[in-house]
Automatic annotation (TrEMBL):
Residues 28-255 form the Xylose isomerase-like TIM barrel domain. GO terms for molecular function: isomerase activity. This is Sugar phosphate isomerase/epimerase. It comes from the Bacteria. Gene3D superfamilies: Divalent-metal-dependent TIM barrel enzymes. Transmembrane segments: none annotated. It comes from Microbacterium caowuchunii. Signal peptide: none annotated. Keywords: Carbohydrate metabolism, Isomerase. The keyword Isomerase applies. Pfam families: AP_endonuc_2. The lineage of its organism: Bacteria, Bacillati, Actinomycetota, Actinomycetes, Micrococcales. Coiled coil: none annotated. InterPro entries: IolE/XylAMocC-like, Xyl_isomerase-like_sf, Xyl_isomerase-like_TIM-brl.
Length: 264
């Protein structure tokens, strides 16, 4: 299933723009694009919401016919339990996270111990924890960790754009993570020369215009055959003013949704 995430609304939700979107506004824009899945990922206000506000947001999603996934950072059992409570409000069946949280950086051995402590809560709740591929943890280590634990409540959130920062090849990341992938973050990426031709900038690109071989990912992971959701994100640099940035962010979202709908 195609979904949008809060990273597809990064600037529209930001206080840097005039009249930033609310979470409900992002849900309404998602529905307007004919998309019925939304991942609330790394959205700081979520953890500050009262029970009443959480239930109000969950009702808004339900009224719009939108399924919710969640996202956080960290794997400490208390954090997992906190997000399982939020998942229960939204009837969310997947929580994306990363091994490293705001206040902790466990190594792989420590991470395995933390995850094994959290697993009973995940399994009882019927929620899958999707650990994202990113530059701070080698993909092979992450995949080995998930495989060693061997629980249906644990998998990989595949984002091959992230691992370039540790000089991993995106295709190799896709191939290594494919058997355990339970969620995909969809964005294109590219290098551009810095002014003066000294160095490069690595950032987002319009879907299909960058370096991401997404057809390879589709062939390798087979997300649509396996029921793995594809969540649209962007790495869109600030364009100099709010109006241009928001307009381009919306254009990139429409382009990515159209791209995903047009690919077999």
């Amino acid at each position: 299933m195609i979904g949008l995430g809060t990273y597809a609304f990064f600037w529209q939700l930001s206080p840097r723009v005039d009249d930033p979107l609310s979470l409900t506004g992002a849900l309404e824009q998602t529905r307007a694009l004919g998309v019925d899945l939304f991942q609330i990922c790394d959205y700081a206000p979520l953890e500050e919401m009262s029970e009443t506000r959480l239930r109000s947001a969950a009702r808004a999603a339900a009224d719009l016919g939108i399924t919710i996934e969640l996202g956080t950072k960290g794997i400490e059992p208390d954090r997992i339990r906190r997000f399982l409570r939020i998942a229960d409000v939204f009837d969310a069946r997947l929580v994306r996270s990363m091994l490293h949280g705001p206040d902790s950086r466990p190594d792989i051995t420590e991470s395995e111990a933390l995850l094994r402590r959290a697993l009973p809560d995940l399994e009882r709740a019927g929620v899958t924890l999707a650990l994202e591929t990113y530059e701070q943890v080698p993909t092979d280590d992450l995949v080995r960790l998930v495989g060693n634990i061997g629980s249906g409540a644990l998998g990989v959130c595949l984002d091959p754009a992230n691992v370039v920062a540790r000089l991993e090849q995106p295709r190799e990341c896709v191939e290594a993570a494919a058997p355990h992938t339970v969620n995909v973050h969809v964005k294109d990426f590219a290098f551009t020369r810095q002014d003066g031709w000294v160095g490069f900038a690595y950032s987002g690109a319009p879907m299909g215009a960058g370096l991401h071989d997404y057809p390879h990912l589709l062939r390798t992971v087979r997300p649509r055959e396996r029921g793995v959701n594809e969540i649209v994100e962007h790495w869109l640099p600030w364009q100099g003013d709010p109006e241009t940035t928001v307009r381009l962010e919306r254009e990139w979202t429409r382009r990515t949704v159209d791209y995903l709908r047009s690919t077999p």
